Every structure is written in C-alpha cells, then in structure tokens.
Amino acid sequence: MAEPLKREQYLDLYYYMQLNRQLEERMVRLFRQNKIVGGLYSSLGQEAVSVGTCFAMEKRDWIAPMIRNIGALLVKGVPPRDIFTQHMAKYTSPTKGKDGTSHFGDLKVRHIVSPISMLGDLIPVMTGVAMAGRYLGQNIVALTWIGDGGSSTGAFHEGLGLAAAQKAPFVLIVENNQWAYSTPVSRQVPVKNLADRAVGYGIASTIVDGNDVVAVYNATKDAVTECRAGRGPHLIEAKTMRMRGHAQHDPAEYVPKEMFEYWKARDPIVLYEKYLTENKIWDEKTKAEIVARIERELDVEQKFAEESPMPPPEFAEVGVYCDDSCHKIAADWKRSKSEVMPPKSSFDPGWKLEDLGRLGEIPTAKEVTASSGGNGAKANGPQARHVTPALPPQSFVNVPIAPREPAQPFAATEVAEPAEPRIPFGRGPKDKAFRESPDNPQNKSYGRGAQNKTFRKGPPEKSFNKGGQNKSFTKNTAGKNFSKGPQGKSGRG
Amino acid sequence: MATTAIPKPGAVTMVDAIRQAMTEEMERDAAVVAIGEDIGVYGGAFKVTDGLLAKFGRERVIETPIAETAIIGAACGMSFLGLRPVCEMQFIDFIACCFNQVTNFVAKSHYLWDAPVPIVIRGPSGGGVHGGPFHSANPEMYFVHTPGLKVIYPSTPSDAKGLLKSAIRDNNPVLFFEHKYLYRRLKEEMPAGDHLVPIGKAAVRRAGRDLTIISYAAMVHTAMEAAEELAKDGIDAEVIDLRTLLPLDKETILDSVKKTNKLLIVHEDTRTGGIAGEIAAIVCENAFEDLDGPIERVTALDTPVPYSPPLEEHFLPNTAKVVAAARNLAKY
To answer: Hey, where are the domains in chain A?
Structure first.
C-alpha cells in the first residue's frame, strides 16, 4: 500500500484539482469571446483522475496525457500559460501555434509525450518509452490514459499486447467517463468493467472510484511501485463521468438527466473538500488562501496569453525535418553500455518453452454449450471443444522464382558533347512518317476518334469537343483576339 | 557530370549488405536496437537479421507480437529517450497496418512539438517474385507524400549498406525499402571501412547524351539493360538512379535533362500518383524550354499486383517496354 500523504501533499492535490477547474472555466469564457481558435474539451468532473494519477508519478517518470488530462500537465509542472497559449494558437505556446489544445510535449525536462487525436496510439508509444527506460537502466515508469471509447481501438490492443509480452513498466489508466462522444459505454463494450479486459492480456488490474482523488492516487502509486519492481504492466480503470459534451459545441442532450444528477452529487472537488474538512487537514482559511492564490496566478498567466502575438505566417515552413543543428540526440545511460554490447550481450539463442504446447484443461462441450446458450444438444462426458486444427500457413519466403538473367553491375562511360544541335521542343519527331504514325504516343486517341493535330498549328479549326463549343481558343470571352498568347508564337528559334 | 560507377562484382548480396549495415551500426552505437516480427531466433522472414540475436541479445533484438502499430509506436517511444530503433516490416505491404502511427505520429512529431523521431522502418518490397497482391507492393508514394519522412529505395548492395547506415544515423524517421527481387540476385564487393552513402543524392549510373532515363530500385537494372539495347541503335541513354525519393535530388535530374533534352521515367510503382508525375512537374517547372520531346513514363499498370506469372509480367515494366518508349522519345 502507498504511504499516507503528508499535509502539504493533501493540499497540493486540492490546489491542482482546483487549478485545473478554474483554468478550464476561464477557457470556457475565452471560447465564448472567440479567443480560442479551435475546439475546447472539458474535463469537468474528471479532475481527480488527471491529478491523482499524475501525482503518484516521480519527476523522472514519463506521461502522455489525453485531451482531458490538463490536470496531469499541471502536476507535471506545465505552467497554465502554456495551456492558454496553445488554445489561443499563439506564437508563445509550446508548439508556437503549430498545434492546439493540450497537444504538446516536453522530452527533456518534464518527460511529457504529446497526445494526438488518433486515440490509442499513445499506448504502444508509451510502451516503447517504458522499454527504453528499462534498457537504459533509468528505472522509470511510463503512464498514459485512454478513455472508454479509445479502448476499442486496434492500437489499444496492439500496445497493451506488446507491453504485456515485454512486461514493460507501463501503467495504463482507463478513464471510463461513461461516454465516447455520444455513445454510452454499455453500447461499446459488453463487459461489466473495462478492467476485465486486463485478464485477456495476462496483466494485473485495479478498479477505482475516479472521483475520489485519494483513492486514485493510492491505486496509481501501488501500480507504479509494482511496475518499478519489474511486475508491470498494470491497468487501472477509473470510473468517472464526463460532465459536459464531447466539446463546447455539444450540449450532451443524449445524456439522461438523472445521470448528470447522480454524478453532480459526486463532484470530485466537493467530495475532496469534505474529506479535507472531516479529516481536519485544513480549515476555511487555508481553503481561501489556495483559491486566492489560484486566481492571482491565473490572472497573470491569462494576461500573458492574451497579450501574446500570433505566429508569423512563414513559420509554417519551419521544422519539418530535424537537422544536426536543431537537436543533439543522446540517450541518458544509467547502466554500463558494455552490458548490451558483444561479447557480454552474446548468447546462444533459441526458445526454451516450459509447457511445449501440451493440452491442459479444455472446457467440455457441455460447459461450452451451457455458456453460449446451447443448441439443445446434451453432451455426455468430456468432448473436445475445437475439433479442426488450423493448418500451418503457407510460406511466401522460399517460393521458387522463375530464373532471370542476373543483373550486371554497370560502369560509367565518358560522353562526348552532342554532335548536332538540338531541335527545340514542340515540333514533334523529326521523322515525318513517325510523327504522323499511330505508333507515336502523342497521336494516341483518348476517345475522341482520330485526332486532328491542331494543337501546334495555331488557331484550331474546331474545339477539342465536337459538341456545341466552337469558340476559338484565340478569342477571349468578349470575342476579341488575345493580344499575344504563348501559343501564338511563330517559333522559338 | 560525375558518374557513380559500381565497384566490381564481389560476394556480398543485398541481404548480406543490409545485415552488415545493421551489425556495424549496432556495434558502433548501443542506442541502436532492432525490433520486429520473427527477427531473432528465426532471423527474419528473409534472414536479413540472421545472427543479430546471438550477437546482441534479447534487449537489442526485440521480437514482437504480430502488431505493426505496436512496433512503430514502441520504436517511436524508444526514440524519445535517445534510442535509434530499426523496425522491420516482415513485408513492406504490412506497413499499411501502421499507416496512422507512421504518418500521424512519427512524421509530425518534430514539426509539431519539436520531438525528433530517429527511427528506421525497413522491409522487403516490390514484385517480380510472384508474391501476389499482398507481398509485392511498392507503397513508397504514400510516404513520399508525407512531410517529415525520408524515403530511400536502393538498387545495389553497396548503396543499401551505405544508405542504411546513413538512415540509422539520421535524426529523422526514414523509410527504407528493400526490393526483394534484388535481395540475392546481385552480388557486389563492399567498399572498405565505414561506408556511408548520403541521403538525398541520386547516382548517374550511365552517362549518355541522347535521352535521360530516371529510375530507382529494381527498375534501375531494367533501365540499364534497355540502355545497352538502345546503344545498339546508336541511342545513347543516360541512366539516373534516384536512390532517395524524399528528399528528391532535383539538381541531378535537372542537370541531366538540360544535357539530353529528353526524359523517360521508369518505375515499378503504379502509374497514377507515382513519382514520375512529380518529376515531370519539376522538370516542366524548371527546364521546360530545355525539353525536346514529351516526358514519357514506363510504369506498372494501375491495378493491384496480380499473382499469376503471366499477369504479373504484363503488369510490370520490362526492358522491352522501356526500349520501345525510349525509341519513340529518341525520334524527337
């Protein structure tokens, strides 16, 4: 179990949750003033998940937030101005206006990987971060969040599968906020708990009340400790509720009123205020101080963002590629490199399999029939569940190939200057017979019948279409001749 | 114009050359790791990574589930901590499975949030070996159309080695296409020492004065055969091997066109949206008045790669088709 928090840490949890909420409320006002360029996504009601999880991470650990994890960014030390400027597409934002919302990262100092809009992609990415941290001996843990909706993506499955196979020090927070845009979780995933999926990957999991910040913190701290001890990965399902629509434009009328009412009574900040009071961790004065501090800080940060310039247009051209001058890429080794270099890394490879694929307990047909509803057949005694073994796949690797002449390496030859002057472009093949023959690709018909090559002869007799359009190309729309068009040149000697 | 002659024939196939490049880079830099399906104990579907596991161990030769998105995603995450993973697609056709990860995450990270992704994605590509529609693709143009990536497609073992070593050291995500028809058909002597070939530089494989044939990968050899055929008719073709498709070596292309005034582009990729169209546009923009004839293309048909040998042979460009197109062009 995680060690109990100190008083300052309890107060910090409150500070970050309240900062998260106040920051977002200010952004809603900015959105209504048309000062936010794109969409605005609210994490109202989910602050405990963002803050509680990230609070359990150490400075060296890595996170990759989703769009509703602004609280996690704040805990990692991102100043609110970065979030304001990102949403306002300012040149002073972390991406300097190249992307919006919480789409930014920080590789060097805070160890944050930027989210992208394609959900699930961060799961394999953070698995890689976790694997690299282990490889370099850094003893870090990587953590990312995924929604109930994003848990249906292929990347979720591929990433978690690799993390499990690699036993990566990776924590996945499944932030079950009940709604994937407008679709309730029960219509996406027919399991009772999203955490049940962990069984399928052979990894440990925890279910936690996502609106209880202390519970979220404790669950994450335990998972992080397990991962750091080499017993990862770990999946945590945090059950919570998205209290707004998918984004500002969405009034969320598809959510039953009673559902909002139930979760409003479970507001994570109100619940935590009660917890702090009941446990005598703070008093009204402390609370007022924290709230006033947040107001003061946000005033400064918002002013900075509003007064910041937009990026210069040409900045759009900058930074597609990394050249040697913009980044020095070097890993931070916390172990001896010689351990991963030959001869130390060399070994006799081969699989050492314990069970050799032997059959263990196989469910009887009776059990299978019972669980699947059955077709009336009453099986007596044990029967094999699967009767048709799959055939091994055909290999494409050593398919015999029809022999061809081996390609010969080639050598360069020196070339003299051309003997005859070139014929300028536009006059066609020199050989008149070929020029007019159907073998000349330029004479190919494109469904217009035999081509009358009028293109180079100045004003065409007919238009390219045989229909009603008989306007001459040399006349403009007013029926007058063009003064001088490129096609009117008599020649280009 | 300088020409890059190929060294004399030797004993090293393209498969060996790629393995040499990976081995040398993994010996040079502990940050270089290999990741992919069946690349360890089995040594990879084409045995490109054979022996790497025994030498470098499981931490550096990482065998994954069949999950291309996981391979690219994990490699990308590793690169954020300073590693330089080399990812294998068992067949490059399967890169379609991780298209999102490559084009949205890997390619855009540096531009959007200043995060370089120094990874290499390599795999066997191309047809001519009757692999059928899902084992013969040339999907390079999807990625040439993606800013942030580099795309390499070598035609010789020594280029494969030198370019792969450069790709591993590059700070950007590099796609490295290995034409499987060339894997074991071509043997070459490797240049001694730390052999690096610069990314983004085309090679003039044969100097000529009458017309330019631009190609890459296996079709370079077809173009060379065609050039020899054309020489019998007194047509002196210059053959350019692009080697890198992104960034494209516009200078070498334009220099050659300005000299020969006629351009034929040959590629094994399908016609519509192939690199020939882009090159034609570049030449029209920059050397229109130097052209003496229409820009010709010889490409594969606009169909999936068919399986049956007569169908595939009809689908692919070959020497006869290149010769015929070049003869027509020479008439201008």
So the answer is: 7-317
- In the stretch 76-95 of chain A, residues with CB closer than 8 A to chain B read 94-95
User: Where would I find the beta strands (DSSP E) of A224-366?
Assistant: 234-239
User: What does each C-alpha distance from B153 to A224, A330, A401, B50 come to in angstroms?
Assistant: 43, 28, 22, 22
Provide, rounded to the nearest whole percent, the portion of chain A with pLDDT above 70: 76
* Chain A residues 395-434 within an 8 A CB cutoff of chain B: 396-397, 399, 401-402, 404, 406-418, 422-425, 428-431, 434
Q: Which has more pLDDT, A465 or A200?
A: A200
Tokens 């210059």 identify what position? Answer: B238
> DSSP alpha helices (H): ranges in A88-121?
none
Q: How far apart are the C-alpha atoms of A1 and A219, rounded to whole Å?
A: 8
CA distance B13 to B187: 5
Domains B14-182 and B203-330 share a fold: yes
B135 flagged as catalytic: yes
Evaluate whether ipTM surpasses 0.90.
yes
Residues 6+ apart with CB under 8 A from A359: none
| Of the candidates A78, A15, A45, A54, the residue with the CA atom closest to the CA atom of residue A301 | A78
Spans of all domains in chain B: 14-182, 203-330
The CATH code of domain B203-330 reads 3.40.50.920
CATH code assigned to B14-182: 3.40.50.970
Q: Three-class SS of residue A51?
A: helix
Task: Identify the residue whose tokens are 């169209």.
Answer: B277
CATH of domain A7-317: 3.40.50.970
Among A473, A471, A469, CA closest to A488? A473
**Binary contact (B41, A324; C-beta < 8 A):** no
Please report, rounded to a whole number, the percentage of residues in chain A having pLDDT higher than 90. 68
